[in-house]
Description:
Layout: H1 9-22, E1 32-38, H2 40-44, H3 53-56, E2 60-66, E3 69-75, E4 81-84, H4 85-89, H5 96-112, H6 126-142, E5 147-150, H7 154-164, E6 169-173, E7 182-183, E8 186-190, H8 191-201, E9 204-208, H9 211-214, H10 217-227, E10 230-234, H11 239-245, E11 249-250
Amino acid sequence: MTTADTTPALDAAKAKFREAVVEKGLLTDDTPVSVSPLAAEQAIGQPSRRDFPIVQGRERVIEAEVNGARGHAFTDSPTEFSGTLAEAMALPLSSNQNRAVFVATLNAALQSVDMLDAGLHCRDEDPEKCARKLAKDVHDKWGRKTVGLIGLNPAIAEALIGLLGAERVHITDLDPRNVGTVKHGVLVWDGRTRTEELIRQSSVVIATGTTLVNGTFDDIRAWIAAYGKDYLIYGVTAAGVCRLMGWDRVCPYARTA
């Protein structure tokens, strides 16, 4: 991530996708694409922890299928889509709905040509195992540094706070039901107004890939570069974009089927 690269992330990923996949004939513009929302249990199984946004119905996972391969994306605006790869890639990236369809399609398409290891959300108890592993990996790599979590994943927040201490964790979120609440001793800030502050005050930034869908990623990318921060992007939503752009991402329990 550099300050010199100001091309919107999804536009840049689209260009790289065409160069790597379509123009090389691995897929064609006429390749069929279908997208549909999943029920929570289809996407995440039956985790014992019930405070995940997808379980509570605050977000949904949509699933795209391309040549039998599937890819997921989180969104608060789930929709269906049926058309060609060219039509999916041509959607205006000005709404959460269209960005979610684009990102899910990208994940499925890259998986269909073996350019992506796993594009499906983890299930059952894996999200909690993921949180513990992510927190440990952050601690092992950077030590007891201040970490900024963009997007309240309750399991990841709890694991980071438990390992680093509440004084070393900042959290922002866009959901007004989360903003102003206290999670394990940490006040959740409003992501609309305080994300730059979170990045400035943190040594390491951990951002949910859902920011690619909700339209906040490009600002986050610019602030991370401007302040010279270490970062990780987490989650299955960002799988394809990070693969194409070479950005650091963690998602240890993502599935292929």
